[in-house]
Design a protein that fits this description.
Immunoglobulin-like; alpha+beta; about 25% strand; globular; about 500 residues; Jelly Rolls
């Protein structure tokens, strides 16, 4: 048989096969668009998906359900970072004895790197607690004058400012926090704050008196808080329990949210203690799809536990990608040309515009930072504070603790009160734990020297460059690190960006 005849027979066979593969033309048959059908086999990022006339095979069904469960779990992980951060703060504070509303954790000698707490600073005195409105009912916070603080709920949503930016205007006063859905009588004489959650984080800080030597300013700030800050249930206002203070300075305390399977176990525990409407139907549905529901036991089988473990690893990677290489332009202070970032994208503390959440911006903030208040993003010349963050060198490479880097701070740093650079660990986002108790340098640092023109050169390396001991922050070989620049009383050149810090330059 000639080759031409063989080819003809082969093509005829294909036509017969194709005819058998296609359903016959029926009386009611119309042309069906390919876009609404499923081919018998399709290649995707999760593998080859196979069908019998649009019905998935058993292997495809299993592949798709694994993907759905994993993708929903990753979504839950990223979107639950704010509430898990609040939960982890409460767990950490309770672990050192601040386990009731009237027990306050205070850093009497300022915060050093022993405490694992997101981007804590070494320059102001923190005093923090948690309310338990389901247990105590309406709760009073009797705030002394001269404080600055905020109340955030268990979704890490802003409730109110305390002190200078709050309704008391820095004069102090009594705040009354009401439980979710409270219908009882509300007495007069209080700054009333309704809460949507049973747990409420009480964050306060006392500034050090600049007119005093540091050795006197620190105990004075502590005494003002210890002698005047009171927290107690309204029902016990006539005989309130004494507010107890737990000194955390120099103590180990972990307040960082987990990055593994335990994230989901803790999330389940959190929602058990909050109102049913704590979450919207979309968030509740997403959690229910992976086995997290209020009033039900969390008991994933081996398959689901494996998927959740994988999802936590992916979610952790996503949070770190967003944090160190943000793609949201609003997080970039000086645009793509610089590595300097801000924590609140576009100075938006609600992460919402026109009813739309900025998901990356929200994840970036809550993975690395705490304290949500509009006052943190309002820059008024000479008042409050503002922040710059940097985690990459001038070539946009991660900072290597085995190398030597330099940061140039031009003359006339525009801070009315003071400025400070604090070094953090890229793993914990807490202060880097080195031989230096306080990993901070700034205008208040004794021994820091300026150049002839009034500028500063700050060095970062395992050992100080010769002659630069007072301008040096220690790094650790094998570890990365990053910086926060705090400007207290930022002046107009900082605000309008006519003054800006240099990039971090690799020296060797």
């Amino acid at each position: 048989m000639k080759a031409k005849q063989l080819i003809t027979l082969f093509l005829a066979g294909l036509l017969v096969t194709a005819a058998w593969a296609q359903p016959p033309k029926m009386k009611m048959t119309t042309d069906i668009p390919a876009s609404i059908t499923a081919p018998d086999k399709v290649e995707t990022s999760i593998g080859t998906l196979k069908y019998f006339d649009g019905v998935p095979t058993e292997k495809t069904v299993n592949t798709v359900y694994d993907f759905l469960d994993r993708s929903r779990a990753v979504n839950v992980f990223i979107n639950s970072i704010p509430m898990l951060s609040a939960y982890s703060l409460r767990e950490g504070q309770a672990s050192i004895g601040a386990d009731a509303s009237h027990k306050i954790a205070i850093w009497d000698n300022l915060m050093d790197s022993k405490s694992l707490l997101l981007t804590g600073n070494t320059s102001t005195m923190y005093a923090v607690g948690f309310l338990a409105l389901d247990k105590d009912g309406p709760t009073v916070i009797d705030l002394p004058p001269g404080m600055l603080g905020v109340l955030d709920d268990m979704a890490f949503r802003y409730m109110t400012d305390l002190g200078v930016a709050g309704p008391d205007k820095g004069k102090g006063g009594k705040f009354l926090v009401l439980p979710p859905g409270y219908k009882g009588e509300v007495p007069k004489g209080y700054f009333v704050v309704p809460s949507k959650t049973n747990g409420v984080w009480v964050f306060t800080r006392g500034y050090l008196d600049k007119s005093m030597p540091l050795g006197k300013a620190i105990p004075a700030a502590s005494a003002n808080i210890r002698n005047h800050l009171k927290v107690y249930p309204l029902a016990q206002k006539d005989n309130p329990p004494k507010t107890e203070f737990v000194n955390v300075s120099g103590k180990n305390m972990n307040t960082i949210l987990p990055n593994d399977f335990s994230f989901f176990k803790k999330l389940h525990d959190l929602i058990q203690g909050e109102p049913d409407d704590y979450l919207g139907p979309e968030a509740k549905g997403m959690m229910a799809a992976i086995g997290i529901e209020k009033g039900k036991r969390f008991a994933p089988d081996d398959r689901m536990k494996k998927i959740l473990t994988d999802a936590a690893a992916i979610g952790n990677a996503a949070a770190r990608a967003i944090s160190f290489f943000p793609r949201e332009p609003g997080n970039l202070i000086y645009g793509d040309e610089s590595a300097w970032m801000m924590a609140y994208a576009n100075k938006d503390t609600a992460f919402e515009k026109n009813g739309v959440y900025n998901l990356d911006a929200r994840a970036l903030f809550h993975f690395g930072y705490i304290v949500v208040s509009p006052a943190m993003a309002v820059t008024v010349p000479g008042k409050g504070s503002d922040y710059g963050l940097i985690a990459l060198d001038s070539n946009k490479q991660p900072l290597d603790g085995s190398k030597t880097y330099k940061l140039h701070m031009p003359p006339n740093v525009p801070a009315k009160d003071f400025w400070a650079l604090t070094m953090y660990d890229t793993q914990t986002r807490s202060q880097l734990q080195t031989d230096q108790q306080f990993p901070t340098l700034g205008s208040q640092t004794e021994g820091i020297k300026t150049n002839d023109d009034g500028s500063y050169d700050i060095y970062f390396s395992p050992k100080p460059p010769k002659g630069q001991e007072g301008n040096w922050l220690q790094t650790i070989p094998g570890k990365s690190w990053w910086l926060a620049l705090r400007m207290y009383g930022p002046l107009q050149p900082w605000i309008d960006q006519t003054w800006r810090p240099g990039e971090i330059e690799l020296v060797e």
